[in-house]
UniProtKB/TrEMBL annotation:
One of its GO terms (biological process) is methylation. Residues 148-246 form the Methyltransferase type domain. The lineage of its organism: Eukaryota, Viridiplantae, Streptophyta, Embryophyta, Tracheophyta. Belongs to the class I-like SAM-binding methyltransferase superfamily. gTMT family. The keyword RNA-binding does not apply. Residues 147-156 are annotated as: SAM motif I. Residues 210-218 are annotated as: SAM motif II. It comes from Spinacia oleracea. Signal peptide: none annotated. One of its GO terms (molecular function) is methyltransferase activity. Residues 237-246 are annotated as: SAM motif III. Pfam families: Methyltransf_11. This is Probable tocopherol O-methyltransferase, chloroplastic. InterPro entries: Methyltransf_11, PiNMT-like, SAM-dependent_MTases_sf.
Amino acid sequence: MWSSDWSSRCATTRTTGTNCHINITQSSALRRLQVPRKPHTVRLYNNRRRSIAVRMAMAEAEAKEDTTMAGSGGKSREELNKGIAELYDESSGIWEDIWGDHMHHGYYDPSQNASLSQHRSAQIRMIEEALRFAAVTDDSSKIPKSIVDVGCGIGGSSRYLAKKYGATTQGITLSPKQAQRAQALAASEGLADKAFFQVADALDQPFEDGQFNLVWSMESGEHMPDKKKFVSELVRVAAPGATIIIVTWCHRDLSASEESLRPDENELLKKICDAYYLPAWCSAADYVEILQSLSLQDIKAEDWSQYVAPFWPAVIRSALTWKGITSLLRSGWKTIKGALAMPLMIEGYKKDLIKFAIITCRKPE
Ligand SMILES: C[S@@+](CC[C@H](N)C(=O)[O-])C[C@H]1O[C@@H](n2cnc3c(N)ncnc32)[C@H](O)[C@@H]1O
């Protein structure tokens, strides 16, 4: 398992003895951010280079007009967003029917065998573990009062956080059906004046600068065709001192001797991308590097793959029940294609190619 804590110079990693030094050079893509970046030597939890996927994606973004986004498999940003919106319009009802209002992995004790109700608890635990990892305090004078939920699904995290902290939440999704359902659920739970939802693009958020004390992105980053723009928007809308939490699918970090993933790994990811409307993947190290380039503080990342292992087998089991099969047949081709690709996710985790990552940081005061 990799782990890093950039603010404390990889204290966690030092204890496992796996860290080493690497010189990170300022890439042209990062220079384009126009963020002053200190020349420095940083410690990475593994001696690795910027992932080729991100380098290629950024170079591609540089070379093309804004309408065709990096790493989106030749799709324009509009085409990708349309596919994502349709996928979630089509599949959110059946997911909610079987799994409830959280469209994310559960967090389990390693090797836990869980029943459906325990899976739902594990999804709540995922939220709590993410808050704990990011050191979001329960101290009433410091709890987040204004939260943005970027890629909100049907608003499960938003409503949970609104209740937990008494906060006002703003959720954005590409799917009109999700936004509508999220708002209806908020009303039915007495949160109509606390939790708000709208259709909007995370890469162009409809919010003023510096509004939110907690910026939350639970399993939406993997859909973003321009990771740098995605992170820049999260940082832009964060208030000074705000916590930013990104929980997302990544590919493994590259070793020092690697320029890219292996062809068989790329092939597997491509099949998953086709099924779930994902652009090119990046590693957690790539996210860390982007955050560093933006001078964020307390940057931490951890691989939680071992804690989510029971999730996909459980989703497959639920799809193979009578209710699962009949719901799938009624849903639509995009949902069926997604269901057929589920074993590929298990394969990716088993091959140590897919990593379930949490990356957190704080915006300077
Ligand atoms: C797997 S769901 C996660 C939902 C939610 N965060 C949860 O944990 O229940 C991915 C979500 O990301 C949203 N999403 C993907 N790309 C987006 C974008 N560019 N802008 C806004 N939302 C996006 C989708 O619409 C969907 O709601």
